Structure formats: structure tokens, C-alpha cells
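Q: What residues go here?
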């Protein structure tokens, strides 16, 4: 993952940029970063300049600010891990692979909200899988 580091991930604030990173790096989908609005006599709307998808105002799912959407990492995409609240912050562990002995290996992240912790752990897991973490 070029120029995205563990330090940068942990320093990020929840919001659109984090949602776009999750969409791009975790789910390998177009994050719709470059959006064009169009207006003509018969129609108006927004489309992504990269993939051409007509967006109707829908951008990336709000993984980093919406708990129901953040939980999709586990329920819909099969990430193995846990989330808990302890010491006044949220802690998330996500398994990113196995060690040579066959035990799961995990990355951990904290956040002031559960979605933030889940998103940061998910991004760290991508980094760890690529061997940069
Ligand atoms: Zn797109």
C-alpha cells in the first residue's frame, strides 16, 4: 500500500477520506474520489469520473461513522475479529492471516467510536497482509 503507513492510519479521523480508503483498500472497489456533477435539460446528477458509475448522491458507504455499516466488515465480508469497549475507548482486533504454526495473527486498533476502531483495524490488516505492517 503505497505511502499509507501504520502511523497515518492511526492518526486519521473518521469521515469521507477514511470511508474512501476502506472502499478502495479493503473492498477493492472504486472509492468515487472524482465526482462530476452534470446538468442538462432532461437530467441532472452526479457521476464518478473514474468508473463512470451514476451516483445519485451515493458515495462510499459510511464505514467510519455508521456502526451498522462498519459491522458489515464482519457480517458481510467475513472479517474475523472482535470489538470491545474498555478504558473509555473502543478496541478492535482483526485477524489478517495465520502464522507458520497455524495460529491466527491479529492487528489491533483503538478509536473513540466503534466504527473508527473497526475501520482502522481493517486498514491495518490490509497493510499487514501486504507485509508493510
Ligand atoms: Zn467510481
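A:
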Amino acid at each position: 500500500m503505497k505511502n499509507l503507513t501504520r502511523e497515518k492510519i492511526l492518526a486519521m479521523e473518521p469521515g469521507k477520506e477514511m470511508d474512501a480508503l476502506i472502499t478502495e483498500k479493503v473492498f477493492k472497489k472504486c472509492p468515487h474520489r472524482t465526482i462530476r456533477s452534470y446538468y442538462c435539460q432532461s437530467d441532472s446528477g452526479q457521476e464518478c469520473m473514474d468508473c463512470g458509475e451514476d451516483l445519485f448522491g451515493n458515495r462510499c458507504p459510511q464505514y467510519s461513522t455508521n456502526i451498522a455499516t462498519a459491522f458489515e466488515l464482519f457480517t458481510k465480508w467475513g472479517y474475523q475479529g472482535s470489538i470491545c469497549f474498555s478504558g473509555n475507548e473502543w478496541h478492535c482486533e482483526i485477524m489478517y492471516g495465520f502464522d507458520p504454526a497455524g495460529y491466527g495473527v491479529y492487528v489491533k486498533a483503538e478509536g473513540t467510536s466503534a466504527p473508527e476502531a473497526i475501520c482502522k483495524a481493517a486498514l491495518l490488516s490490509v497493510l499487514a497482509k501486504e507485509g508493510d505492517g
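A: Context that may help when evaluating the design: The longest helix spans residues 114-129. The helical segments are 6-11, 16-26, 67-70, 72-75, 114-129.
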